[in-house]
């Protein structure tokens, strides 16, 4: 019977072959339709929230402008997370098998704690994807061409023309647009804790000691009243570590008329130490130079005093690497963090002052950041880290 059918199919008559092609075609259409339906179903808010419902991403999104706004146009999860174009969409769906794996086999975000622990990793992946595609999904709805920039809010009017000129992309400046930002500082906080741990076992006889935090400097081992303050990431030279405190020498430059401050470099407002009035006469003064550019007089100085044996490290490499991370994490949320060499050392003071209000940095973190940026500025170029 089968043999006969087979023979029949391959017989001269073209009819069965045509039937086969038609049947195949219909099958294809059904498969195609089913495939597309599957694509549609898996591309809805309902589908996404069937897994992501209990997580803050959904709750936060529901309070955002993309869920409800004056124009009544809603951007749903797939609008921002799944490409519209065929090729990239299929690729995204294949990548989604990773999500299936993490849903059913190795759950990664099934409890609030696990979600929080993974949030930064996931967000970074989204940022990277959006950067690579030049924020393609955002541009399905928005474009610079159709924006009435002069009708926008002041900050947008300032930043959008800059973005067009510099070719930066939406996600460079619009992170946290639909969900709360992950805690970027958590990783750097951990790095700082490790530095503090390291400081507990530091050898106070090392050739150099670098401060982790703002610290007092005293005239004597026993004094309770400080003679000045040494700023974070300042490197001092231990002279005698035998006492309760460590006796150290802070060196640098002082400007005529501002003798209370010891700066790290001549002509640059990079603070090492601020001294009290009574300590100023005890400063050792060396050669004085007159800067050609400004006519200012700067003198090489050093001050010897006593510091508590805490919050110091002998090798500062890890501290600078921490400062670099702190900078990236704090300053690349709303725009690309400019390279430290984008500004002069003295300009960084004003720039940072206007921007720290946007961050949750502590006073000491601000001081460390300022020093990091100043020491890597256009006119210092990382030369004078010590
Ligand atoms: C079967 C459950 C499930 C469904 C349905 C689901 N997700 Fe996910 N999703 C996950 C899991 C689990 C992770 C974490 C993956 C990991 O740990 O790497 C995740 C991670 C993500 C991430 C962050 C990481 C990245 O690579 O982009 C985004 C964005 C995301 N999902 C969006 C969506 C959207 C949009 C939809 C609807 C089209 C959706 N998900 C549907 C389970 C799901
Ligand atoms: C499905 C279309 C759609 C997509 C995709 C989309 N948006 Fe929007 N976006 C809107 C609508 C609609 C509004 C609200 C307009 C209004 O205020 O009435 C909006 C508002 C905004 C606003 C103004 C926010 C505010 O506080 O007023 C910003 C910024 C923005 N979108 C950025 C983005 C970015 C970045 C992406 C990509 C990650 C994106 N949008 C993706 C439609 C979309
Ligand atoms: C260089 C940074 C930067 C880039 C890049 C950028 N934006 Fe903005 N955008 C801003 C700032 C700053 C605001 C004002 C935010 C505020 O007022 O809180 C803004 C505001 C907006 C608004 C609201 C405008 C208003 O006043 O109603 C929309 C919509 C928007 N951006 C969309 C986009 C889209 C889409 C892209 C990518 C095509 C993009 N932006 C790229 C910085 C940027
Ligand atoms: C307007 C665009 C937009 C919409 C709509 C949107 N997201 Fe996101 N989503 C983002 C961006 C941008 C990020 C990257 C992190 C950030 O900047 O907040 C992100 C990050 C995520 C992450 C990674 C974890 C995290 O918190 O960063 C998940 C998971 C996620 N989205 C799921 C969803 C789900 C589920 C929906 C719908 C309920 C949704 N998103 C709707 C833009 C969007
Ligand atoms: C919460 C968002 C946000 C954070 C975080 C942020 N900035 Fe900004 N930044 C802006 C906005 C908005 C502007 C433009 C308007 C203005 O000057 O306020 C801007 C402008 C700037 C400019 C000037 C750009 C120019 O050429 O005119 C610099 C430089 C800058 N930021 C550096 C930083 C540094 C450094 C940090 C970290 C300490 C930082 N920003 C953190 C939002 C932010």
Automatic annotation (TrEMBL):
Domain NapC/NirT cytochrome c N-terminal: 17-183
Tagged with keyword Disulfide bond: no
Compartment list: Cell inner membrane
Top-level taxon: Bacteria
Entry annotated with the keyword Ribosomal protein: no
Chief place where the protein resides: membrane
Pfam families: Cytochrom_NNT
Keywords carried by this UniProt record: Cell inner membrane, Cell membrane, Electron transport, Heme, Iron, Membrane, Metal-binding, Transmembrane, Transmembrane helix, Transport
Chain ranges passing through the membrane: 12-35
Membrane topology: Single-pass type II membrane protein
Family: Belongs to the TorC/TorY family.
Protein's UniProt name: Cytochrome c-type protein
Organism listed in the record: Pseudovibrio ascidiaceicola
